[in-house]
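Appendix B, Record 12. Input sequence as logged:
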Amino acid sequence: MSKLEELLEKEGEIGFVLGQNERRKFLRWAKSNGLKWMNGEEIKETDDCFFHMVVSKDKTIANISTLCWIKDKGYPSRRVIFKDFPKES
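Logged structural output:
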C-alpha cells in the first residue's frame, strides 16, 4: 500500500499545498497515481490547478480556494506540503 493510499484510508481526504512551480508536477503525479478530477474527467497535460488541492478517498482531486483553505482550518483534516510528500510513483 502506498503512502497516499494509506493516508486516504485513514483520513478520507488529504489537502496538498503546492509551491509556485509545482502545479503541473502535482497533476502529473496525481495522474500517475490513477487520480481523476472530481467530475470524473481524466487529468490532461494542459490542465492547471490552484495552490491548494484536495485528494479524496474515491481517487478524485479538486481545487480548494485560498479563502476556504484559510477560513476552514479543519478541512481537510490532513494537510501536507507536496514537495515533502513521498512520491512512490
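The first helix runs from residue 3 to 11.
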